């Protein structure tokens, strides 16, 4: 390994985009959806209080992630799960507490995400998702991640609920859209950056629709497995996969020590 390549790996704060990456991302999305529902409806905490609590926890885990010198699986994925929960609550608060229409929230977060990308590129001259270092680039990265979760929540609820397609049909539609992105990338050579972000946005409503389908009652179009059971199973799988990534990372020592 060349010294420059080793340094790039050592200072990078994000994981390689692999099949395991996408699997954990989808699972974390589902946990975000069912976890938020568990706090609101099962523990009867209420949406406003739950949003405040999860916002405070997000600041805590984000501080842990930002303090890391390089990518550490536990810190990164803990942050993703927490961003997933808070992004869900952010959209739900606008819709359920303030009565903002799902079409409006979808449009708003689309514009917010586009603005985030514009500012990111204007400052960094790059939207690379392979080299995210400490500092300004990492801040833009996590802001974009938050916007994708909020946008995905709004778009997913719009398709499943307002269009009355149901959770299973919505999941299939978003899965098909993800497949189209894959075809565009691998067959028609769509660039990796737009391919990544389109897939990242679409996996949010796909995972949320899957979570709702598994957890909601049969009367509401689900399988009736409950938010507790669904969240517990998916959380265990996430922990196992993150442990695997951590073990793999420690098996390959870096050539240099991170600065």
Automatic annotation (TrEMBL):
Please list the coiled coil stretches: none
The answer, when asked if Ubl conjugation is one of the entry's keywords, is no
Keywords in UniProt for this one? Membrane, Transmembrane, Transmembrane helix
Q: What InterPro entries does UniProt report for this protein, alphabetically?
A: DUF347
Give the residue spans that cross the bilayer.
39-62, 74-91, 97-120, 140-159, 165-188, 223-247
- Pfam families tied to this protein: DUF347 (PF03988)
Protein known as = Uncharacterized membrane-anchored protein
Q: What is the lineage of its organism?
A: Bacteria, Pseudomonadati, Pseudomonadota, Gammaproteobacteria, Pseudomonadales
């Amino acid at each position: 390994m060349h010294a420059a390549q080793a340094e790039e790996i050592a200072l990078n704060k994000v994981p390689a985009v692999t099949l395991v990456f996408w699997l954990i991302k989808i699972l974390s999305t589902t946990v975000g959806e069912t976890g938020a529902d568990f706090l609101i409806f099962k523990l009867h905490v209420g949406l406003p209080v739950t949003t405040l609590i999860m916002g405070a926890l997000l600041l805590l885990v984000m501080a842990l992630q930002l303090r890391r010198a390089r990518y550490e699986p536990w810190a990164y994925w803990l942050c993703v799960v927490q961003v997933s929960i808070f992004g869900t609550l952010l959209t739900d608060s606008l819709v359920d507490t303030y009565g903002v229409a799902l079409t409006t929230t979808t449009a708003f977060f689309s514009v917010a995400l586009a603005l985030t990308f514009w500012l990111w590129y204007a400052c960094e001259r790059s939207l690379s998702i392979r080299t995210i270092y400490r500092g300004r680039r990492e801040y833009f990265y996590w802001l974009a991640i938050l916007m994708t979760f909020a946008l995905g929540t709004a778009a997913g609820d719009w398709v499943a609920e307002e269009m009355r397609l149901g959770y299973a049909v919505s999941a299939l539609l978003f899965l098909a859209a993800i497949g189209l992105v894959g075809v565009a990338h691998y067959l028609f050579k769509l660039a990796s950056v737009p391919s990544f972000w389109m897939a990242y946005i679409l996996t949010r409503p796909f995972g949320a629709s899957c979570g709702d389908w598994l957890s909601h009652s049969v009367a509401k179009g689900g399988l009736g497995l409950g938010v507790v059971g669904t969240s517990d199973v998916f959380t265990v799988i996430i922990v196992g996969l993150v442990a695997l990534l951590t073990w793999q990372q420690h098996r390959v020592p870096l050539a240099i020590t991170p600065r």
